[in-house]
Structure formats: C-alpha cells, structure tokens
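Look over this one:
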Amino acid sequence: MDALTHAALTHAIDARRAALIGLAQDLIRIPTLNPPGRCYRDICDYLAARLMAQGWTVELVRATGAPGDSDAYPRWNMVARLESGRAGDCVHFNSHHDVVEVGHGWTRDPFGGELDGDRIYGRGACDMKGGLAASIIAAEAFLATTPDWRGAIEISATADEESGGYGGVAYLAERGYFSPDRVQHVIIPEPLHKDRICLGHRGVWWAEVETHGRIAHGSMPFLGDSAIRHMGAVLEEIEHHLYPLLSTRTTAMPVVPPQARQSTLNINSIHGGEPEPPAGSTALPAPCVADRCRIILDRRFLIEEALDEVKSELRAVLDRVQSRRAGFTYTIRDLFEVQPVMADRDAPVVRSTAAAIERVLGQVADYVVSPGTYDQKHIDRIGRLKNCIAYGPGLLHLAHQPDEWVGVQDMTDSAKVMALVLADLLG
C-alpha cells in the first residue's frame, strides 16, 4: 500500500470522528438485552436504514425456530452487502448486537451512551457496539477514498452471541451466508484491543451431572439415601484428583490471560433436594432427605486435547466414586460443546491485519487466543471458513462489567486498521 492511500484513509476516518462517536452512542442507546432478546428488530432497522441510504443491499433475517426465538422476542439479524462490480474477494465484518443484563453497580445510565472525555459508557459499549461502529466507519471511509476497489464488502449485526449464537451466526452459517464461495475473509470486532489479533478460542464442554438418592423424613435420614452426600463425594474426587491433573496441561495456543493456557474446570452451579422457599419467606424448607443433586460443569479444553478424552476423564471420576460408595448412581447429560479453533498466522486476513496494525500504531501486532468462545466457532465449524479472526477496539476485562466503556481513540485507531485491511484485500 502506498503512502498516499494510507494518508487518505487516515484523514477520512479522522474526519469522521464525530460520526463514529454518534454511531456508537446511537447503538448503545438501543437496549438489545439478552435475555430475553429485546429491541433486536430496532437495531437492525436502524443499521439497515443507514446502509441502504448509501447503496448497500440489506437483508433482515429472522432466525425462525432457533433457540430463544418467539413472536414476543424474535431473533433478527441484519446482513448488508455492497458489490463493487469488479471481480474480487469479499471481506465480511460480523458483530453481535445483543448485550448481557445490566447488573448492579452502575454509576451511569447503562443505556445513555454518555461521552466523558475519551470514553463512551454503556452496556455493550465495549462488547461490542464500539467495534460494530468502527467497522461501519471503516467501510464508509474506504468507499469514499477508493472508487476503483474490487470484490464485495459485507457488514452483519447478529443475534444471541451472548447465549451461544444459535439465533445469529449459526443460523446464518447453516444457510450459506459464511460459505467460502460467498465470503473469503471475516473480521469479528470483539474487544481484544487495537494491537491484538485474536486467532481463535479454546474448546468448551458443558455437562450436567446428577446423583441419585432416596427421599425420607429428615428426622430419620437413615431411611433415605442423600444425593447431596453422594455429590459431595464427587466434588471431593474432582478437587483432589481432577483439578491437579488439569493444572499440568498447558497449550501452545497464545491464550490470554496466561492462566488460561491450561485446562480449566468450573462448577457453575449446584442444586440439591426440594425447592427452597423464596428469599425472605417465613416458610421453612422441606424436612426431607435429598433424592437428587445436580451440578453444571464448564470444562474448557485445549487444542491439544480430544473432546472424547475430556468426557472420559469425568466419567472416570464418577466411576471411581461409584466403586467406593454403596448405592451410588449418576447420570451425565451433554449441554453444550465446541471444538477449539485457531486461524493460521499466515492466513490472508491475519497477515493483512498485522501489517495494518504496524502502520497505524507503529508496533508489531500481538497474537492471542480467547479463553472463551465467540462466533468464530460457527463460522469455522458450520461455514467451513478458516480465514477468520477477532479484531476490535475495547478492553476485554471491561465486558459485562458495570460502567462498561469503550475509548474513542481506540475505536478510531481500530477503524483505521480495518480500513487499511480493506485497501489491502480489495483496493
């Protein structure tokens, strides 16, 4: 890329700084809460109106029948495409438009989009409406300065990433929107920070384990069999044998933070016995021996591990407990599983983004892998598209936090990087 092209794109984005701020604020002010899935159509309509006015072809796609989709809370997605009329590749920017619940501890309006100095505050500012705004401004600046570009550009705003992406990217991928003959390069502007290229993520397996018992009166527990005590033995086996084993496994994947470069296991929840009265109620709990106890396990595994072996390790834990405890029985139910994914460092979109980061920021790009999954899993697994990365503004540790914010300069710099990527791949 020549210096004139670089200078023109940089100037075009700097000139759009106010537009970038306003766009990010407008997006934050649309409360696309998930759950339950509010205002999905509103944000898609807003984006569709903006892009259609500039000549983009826009589709609004409802993920009918997907998990969570209902007439009360339909799962709407927006896909915009602009063709150059010249043969070439397609670069696709994919952002999820849903945000998590507000939670407690805010000192600002969660949907106010307040600008304070260099920061824009609000739920979703960092994760990831700032990235969505930056990608749109990047495309607009590129189109304004590069009349003879080739190929196509796509921008999508998709549903439900915060709950697995099944009403969003997965639904679209199943219908060919991310097939390699339609799209060749994908950038997901997740908040990994402006100097990092996220190549992929670890794998995940969620499972429900239930231990079984026999109900009896709490004054005569010897007539029953406590499922909670059985589960206690399972937890002890996990604590003393499985956790130490997992801590010895490390990966060559550049996962951040460094503590996530090993296999991890979290016990998300535990429920045993009869339902308890609501908090604050004067009613007493049921005086019964628990006949069932359930835990939800969240196992994050490495690209060096096989999912079948991950599952076998847990079953071995349960079988060892069963061999020592009379009357112990259990069931395992799979809830969710995703294989690890990682783009190659030599992939075209990786090389192009790395070069753009160096030009904009004057430093070598850092390559990372996310500890948790995001929508790259569906683009890789369903779309069979490997040339996909996450790159966007924002600090990952701010996601889902009170007083979430995104930096205006970070958005501006990221938009410059994205515009240079377009110039390199399509210019």
About this structure: The first strand starts at residue 57 and ends at 62.
